[in-house]
Amino acid sequence: MPRVAVFGGSFNPIHYGHLLLADEVLELLGLDRVLFVPAASPPHKPAGQLAPAADRFEMVRLAIAGHPRFAVSDLELRRTGPSYTVDTLQALAADGDELFLVIGSETFLDLLSWREPRRVASLARLVVIPRAGSAFDPESAAAQKVLREIGLEGGFVHVGAGQARPPRGALIVHAASLPLSASELRRRVREGRSLAFRMPPAAIDYVRSRGLYRAEPA
């Protein structure tokens, strides 16, 4: 059974931080593939701050080209309405793959605000990535409450290179990260500053050719 990491997000725009994290997760967990899933209409983000979904999808496609185990899905672009993760996982599960959902530690703490969080946790193994410099404490009351509410047995399991994955529990992966943020890149575009060494050149060229992020967000 193929083991696939599902890496969703707005990717507004995608950058080297996303790509490094995905490659680290792929290697540390010994997975077969990372599937990037750009959200068409993220429920928790103002639409006015987003580039068109088709543009964000194309930037991801260009950014991952050449990596043999990266792929991108237009599943959420083809579906109408808000891009709920539970719907995406339900559709992907039909392929019979073993799914691993990659989320940041801050997102994990907000998981109870998602649609059907229990179902999300049953459809995919949660892979929690602590943000560099964050104070995420898996033993905190907030983190433990999320575990209880989503019915996840096994608690948190820290996983590093060469370690076996226990059969249960949310995986904590301390993946390498870069001090990059999509909001900072959008600001750099508005100010006419360089994106070099922050995004793949093909994605940078796309941003420029399409005139993305030049205006202030609505």
Description:
- The chain is α/β, with parallel strands linked by helices and 218 residues long.
- The chain is 36% helix and 17% strand.
- The chain has one domain (3-178): Rossmann fold.
- The protein contains nine helices and seven strands, in the order βαβαβααβααβαββαα.
- Helix 2 (53-64) packs antiparallel against helix 9 (201-210) and helix 4 (85-93) runs parallel beside helix 6.
Beta-strand percentage range? 15-25%
Q: Which residues form runs of ≥5 with pLDDT under 50?
A: none
Shape: globular
pLDDT average, as an integer? 92
Q: What strand order characterises the main sheet? A: 3-2-1-4-5-7-6
Structural class: alpha/beta
Summarize the biggest pleated sheet: 7 strands, parallel
Enter the CATH topology name.
Rossmann fold
Helix amount: 25-40%
CATH architecture: 3-Layer(aba) Sandwich
Intertermini distance: 44 Å
Gyration radius from CA atoms, angstroms: 17 Å
Topology record:
Layout: E1 3-9, H1 16-28, E2 33-38, H2 53-64, E3 70-72, H3 75-78, H4 85-93, E4 98-104, H5 105-109, H6 117-123, E5 125-129, H7 141-149, E6 156-159, E7 170-173, H8 182-190, H9 201-210
Parallel strand pairs: 1-2, 1-4, 2-3, 4-5, 5-7, 6-7
List its traits.
Rossmann fold, 7-stranded parallel β-sheet, globular, alpha/beta, single chain, 218 residues
Structure described in brief:
This protein has 218 residues and is of the alpha/beta class. It contains 9 helices and 7 strands; from the N terminus they run E-H-E-H-E-H-H-E-H-H-E-H-E-E-H-H.
